[in-house]
Please model this.
Amino acid sequence: MADHEGFRKDGSMEKIIAACGNDCAACPRYTKHPYQKTEEQLRHTAEMWMKIGYRDRIVSNQEIACTGCTAENACRFHTVTCCEEHTVSSCAFCPEYPCPLIHECFQITVSFEPECRKVCTREEYEQIRTAFFEKKENLENLRKRSEGSEG
Model:
C-alpha cells in the first residue's frame, strides 16, 4: 500500500501497472507527479531509447515524456484501446487473457532485452527491466490478487 505520493512506508516505489503490465513508476519516461524528470533526465532517456532501438532517432523531451497510457498515445500494441473495448482497466482483468495481442506484446518486449544488456549501464538496465521486462509477471500478480479478492 502506498503511504504518500507513490512511495511505500519503507521508501520503495509503489508499482503503477499499465494496461499491458509495464510498471510506470519505474519507467524513465514517466513524468506524472511525483515522478517528474529533469530536462537532462528526459534527454538521456531519449538517447537511451535510440541506442536500445526503441526509437530510430533521438526524439524531443516532449515526445519522450509520458504521463501514462491513453488510447490516444502512440502504442504499437493498442492495449489501452483493446482494454476499453473489453471494458477492463488492464489486460490482467480481461476474460480473453492471455490473448494473441498480449503474447505479441510480451515477445516484442523481450526481443529488446539483449540490446538493453549490451548498451545500457547496469543501473539503466535494471530500471528498464523493472519497467518493461516484468510485464507478464506484473499482469499475473494483478490477476491473482483480483481472483483472490473475489472469493
Observations:
- The chain has seven helices and two strands.
